[in-house]
Amino acid sequence: MTSQQDIPLFEEVVKGYKTLSASGADSESTDVRRARQLAFDQFRVLGFPSIKNEDWKYTNITRFLKDEFALDGLLPGDKAVVSAPAELLRKATIPGLDCYQVVLVNGVWDGKVLGASHVGGDGLRVDALPRGIRLYPVAEALKNPGVSGVFENGKWGNQPFANLNTALFTNGLFIEAAAGAVMEKPLHVVHLYTGDRNLLVQPRHVWVAGRNAELSIIESVLSSTGETKIWVNSLTEIIANVDAKLDHVVIQTASAGVRLVQHTTVRQKKQSLYNNYTFTLPGAELVRNDLQARLEEDHTETHLYGLYLAAGGQLIDNHTLVDHQKPHCYSNELYKGVLLEQSTGVFNGKVYVHKDAQKTNAFQQNNNLVISKKATIDSKPELEIFADDVKCSHGSTVGQFSEEALFYLRARGLGEETAKAMLINAFAFDVTEKLKNKAVETYVNDLISYHIPSSTQA
Question: What is the mean pLDDT of residues 209-237?
Answer without folding.
Answer: 94
